[in-house]
Amino acid sequence: MAGSALFNLMLDAWETPDKMRTVTTLFAAGGFLAFPLGLWAAGFLSEGKRAETAFAAAFVSFAVATIGVTAVLYAIQYRLYYAQWHADAFTVIWAFQIVFTGLAAFYQFTVLGIRLFFPIGFVVLFIAALWFARRLH
Fold first, then answer.
1. pTM of the shown model
2. Is residue 45 one of the residues assigned to a domain?
3. Would residue 53 count as lying in a domain?
4. How far apart are CA 19 and CA 32, in angstroms?
């Protein structure tokens, strides 16, 4: 996932090398942390099923886990940045700020971040799902 993000950022001549490194690291961490979660979900969904079902379960599980974990990591980073302007911790205003900052981060990641998974990430996703289905059968 890091390679896919870096490839897209380089094609866009995006920002500075430091910012490219930060985004690439975020996508690497997201992919790294999501793989075991996606593997578990795929195994759970495809237990005792045919190879085609295992492939579909793996494809969806890996995709949802990777996008979800990367989005959560992005939201955490987003929150850390905006925390300096938020209210004191554990107040009602602070709770609203946490929720709406998180929602804004997820929206922003959906609009701007998911495109960095294509086309390389999609190919890797297909290969991982194929590997999973063949491993089971």
1. 0.92
2. yes
3. yes
4. 20
